[in-house]
Fold:
Amino acid sequence: MAQRLESSRDKDRFDGQLPFHAHFRCSVCGKLYDIPVDTKEIIKEAREKSGHRIHAHNIEFTGICALCAEKK
Structure:
């Protein structure tokens, strides 16, 4: 089993890490990392503040990864 990671930047990717979790995409090297944050809390807050029924999510942060930041 894998989850599809839709992207507007390039080709979709597939992730074998289940359940859903957050990702970080480096804007320098393009690498995609898993991020250990509690997505349940993020979804709970979004549901409570919006009143929407959320069935799925794709949480992706972007920036400069630690490896690229060390090089600068």
Remarks:
- The mean pLDDT is 80.
- The helical segments are 39-50, 66-71.
- The chain is about 25% helix and 25% strand.
